[in-house]
Amino acid sequence: MCGIVGYVGKRNAEDVIIEGLSKLEYRGYDSAGIAINQNKDTIAYAKKKGRLSILENFLKEMPLLGQVGIGHTRWATHGEPSDCNSHPHLNENGTIAVVHNGIIENYMEIKEMLIAEGYTFKSETDTEVIVHLLDKYYKGDLIEAVYTTIKQLRGAYALGVVAVNHPDELVAVRKESPLIVGLGDEEFFIASDVPAILKYTRKVYFLENGEVVHIKDHTIKVYDENKNKVDKEVKTIDWDIEAASKSGYDYFMLKEIYDQPQAIKDTLLRRLDKNRIIRLDDIRMTKEQLEDVGKVYIVACGTAYNAGLVGKYAIEKLAQIPVEVDIASEFRYSDPFIDEKTLLIVVSQSGETADTLAAMKLAKSKGARVLAITNVVGSSVAREATDVFYTWAGPEIAVASTKAYTAQLVAFYMIALDFALKRTTISSDKYNELIDKIESLSELVAQILDGKEAIRSIVKDIKDTKSAFYLGRGLDYMTAQEAALKLKEISYIYTEAFAAGELKHGTIALIEKGTPVFCVVTQDNLAEKMISNIKEVKARGAFVIAIAKSSNLEISKVADDTIYIPEADDLLMPILSTVPTQLVAYYASLERGNDVDKPRNLAKSVTVE
Ligand code: G6P
């Protein structure tokens, strides 16, 4: 997803912007560009298709000196990745430059109008209409031109704007797309995300929708959409820049897999009081309000959706409330039944996923209460929600989500336990037993990680396969779905997950001699059924790799290979069974020579529909 960085201060803006953009690479991009206000007749700029390093090498030959500028990494939506479609975009005489993250939905009609007025377009992007509108409305006051322009725009946009007549100014806007402001000592930054500016400052403003930032004469002012001045609260980022770097691991994904014992601990322990009762400080639902809930939806995308599948299971089992789970992009257009008694739980690592945000806005407009599970403090999802549960997993940089997923599962277990306690559907003994068991998960995950070399050698045997399958029943089917997503997204091996009981209704036709079939077998009441399914696929030539509890000695007699994992309560097993599947995906990607952290065609944070 596109990334924006802007700078006004005394440093060389090019250095700050390129450094910042490199910290946003995790968002996924296909081209990069920069514009610097050099106090000349036109804005200097450079933009290149491909990795940021291509732009950097170009700038080594032709540096753009100056202390005010904007930069961008683009993830193509309108028009193919190319130098021309990359941002920044400039008006015809090169006096105004814009970077944009988001989508302008009415750009076609604006473009037609501008062409009729004599404007010519160089790119296929929606963004270019913005800079021509700025040109049209600019009458000497940049901020006025920005306000008039954004009134014409429909859609999502975070913008950074510079103009030759305003050599020490930068204007930024946030509407539905993320943007933060970094506050330094007589210097200011704008960025799509915190890691881009952490090297320079920890003090930030989180912008609200519709807010416009005006940096000028070493001061910063923030206005709302009606041009009223807003007094922003300065927030201090308390996580370390080290946490956003690889800490010695080859890839962010591996580091983040290894972060999991800590992330599980952080998410759980900081919320247990001295009597080991869960305190969910940002969830203000009373017992009475919970009793009043008629319907619960869990809505999310991708890995967060898979976490929701486990969440449904936990809430139904512990709190005895029926729950429906839906994909956000489906939910928002399905005319779902929502009223004031509906509780919508949204799950989003980034807190910025466009479909998830739209789903929650829809639910809110119909009177529902919204509880958000997110990893990013101050994110759009967090700010829109009535109640928030922050997973304290730390920043997740690899596109493939790992520690955010396991932290989301911990979140669901805690929410389910909290609801169960309030609804008195759990005994205090069972409650205490589960809290103890959740606490021990951190150590058990660490034990699984110790066995990573055995998993690597299993992966070496299957790395050249064209397709693979994951099978499971009950909660193991939930793990299978997340495991299949992980394997396919970074190894590019065609992988699907199936409910093992559905095998004979079609899936089994796909099994050929040597097809790797991963079978997740951690649910005691379903283990025997899974053994039958393993025999069925083996009889058709499958190469079966089981992921099973260490006590299940039968499994290794039927499977070709077994990854044994420690025991926990069956309800909690998805956290443990997922970890080996993350390593399977990681090593498969590595062995096949892929870019583990930045798989092709994917973005970390999907801020457009
Ligand atoms: C993208 C990411 C996934 C993530 C999904 C939802 O597809 O690549 O890893 O699960 O978006 O993102 P969210 O930030 O809402 O959890």
Top keywords for this entry?
binds 6-O-phosphono-alpha-D-glucopyranose; globular; alpha/beta; 36% helix; 19 helices; Rossmann fold; Glutamine Phosphoribosylpyrophosphate, subunit 1, domain 1; 609 residues
Structure report:
- The chain has 609 residues and is α/β, with parallel strands linked by helices.
- The chain folds into three domains: 3-238, 4-Layer Sandwich (Glutamine Phosphoribosylpyrophosphate, subunit 1, domain 1); 244-449, 3-Layer(aba) Sandwich (Rossmann fold), CATH 3.40.50.10490; 452-591, 3-Layer(aba) Sandwich (Rossmann fold), CATH 3.40.50.10490.
- It contains 19 helices and 25 strands.
- The strands form four sheets. It has an eight-stranded antiparallel beta sheet with strand order 3-2-4-1-10-9-11-15, covered by helices on one side. It has a seven-stranded antiparallel beta sheet with strand order 5-6-7-8-12-13-14.
- Helix 14 packs parallel to helix 19.
- The mean pLDDT is 94.
- 6-O-phosphono-alpha-D-glucopyranose binds at residues 301-304, 348-350, 353, 356, 399, 401, 602, 604-606.
